[in-house]
Predict the structure.
Amino acid sequence: MTQLQTEILVKGQPAKAEALVLTAPISFWGGVNPKTGLIADVRHPQHGVAITGKVLCLPGTIGSSSAAAVLLELVYAGLAPAAIILHEPDAILLLGLIVAQEMDHGTPMALKLDREAFGCLSHKILQIDAGGMISIR
């Protein structure tokens, strides 16, 4: 079993789920359907794939100030990822998790990890503890 230490960007619930490593950046506004949890952008390589319940590894985001609202809707509907791993913080996206916490919703943890480590995560089961330690199975 391999372990990786991450930096916690937003505290949230520990998670155990399959990693979904996106191969291209995504915009949550128009790129993710908040009613289904599916990648809705027809130009995205993983169009139609569900992010719900997965450890979502984002190689980047395509900015929109509405990304926070879409993530908040996903949390509220129970369709959010189990955790989010970014290679660099995205303040707008993370704001959705912070607002969800303020509204007393259980929220996924957001973590920072070097993009180079994403490759070893694809389709693996990740267990993330409260301290941001990832165990790869």
Remarks:
- The two ends are 6 Å apart (CA to CA).
- The mean pLDDT is 95.
- Strands lie at 2-5, 7-10, 15-21, 55-58, 83-86, 109-112, 125-128, 133-136.
- Residues 2-136 form a domain with the Glucose Oxidase; domain 1 fold (CATH 3.50.30.10).
